[in-house]
Amino acid sequence: MIEEQIPQWRQELKSSQKKEGKSPSNRWIQMATITKNNQPRIRTVVFRGWLDNDSMLIFTDKRSQKIKDLEDNNNVEILWLFIKSKSQFRFKGQAFKIIDDISYWNNLTENVKDTWFWPKPGEPLSQNKLVIDTNKIEKPYNFSVFQIKIDSVDLLKLEKPIHKRYFWNKQDLWRRLEVNP
Predict the structure, then answer these.
(1) What domains lie within the chain, and their CATH numbers?
(2) Torsion sign (Cα): 22, 117, 78, 44
(3) 31-65: per-residue pLDDT in tens?
(4) Full-model pTM
């Protein structure tokens, strides 16, 4: 069996992440969805890693609006901006729920686990602190993991004197195409 090679855009992404260091931009990505009424929705989510060479992971609350959006239309676009490397990545693809998600839950820190027991997103926040021993509680029903299967990548490098832009498409076996910025 031949091992699949990591696409060049992943190498470019890794280089940008390295330049960012411990900046939050290394983990915060913007994900756009479309509502059932064809309204765009964008929100910041946390990048949780790679499932394979072209599928990124995010965790989300089943009670959030993005779940309803993804149930109606699983097409997404991810924007990932790296300030230090002056690189903007746009990923287009589809989101799919991962059913067997217990290993992801088990790898979370206790502080992060606590947040999954908060009230439903968008509800008024109580000033009373919830005290939950997550060691004695199973994974909550609202914890959800999604795989974003990437079909295309668009990289804009904000270089001087002229910006550079590259495009990769899975159908073209991730061959890089330089395009006008």
Answers:
(1) 8-118+127-179 (2.30.110.10)
(2) negative
(3) 999 999 999 999 999 999 999 999 999 999 999 99
(4) 0.89
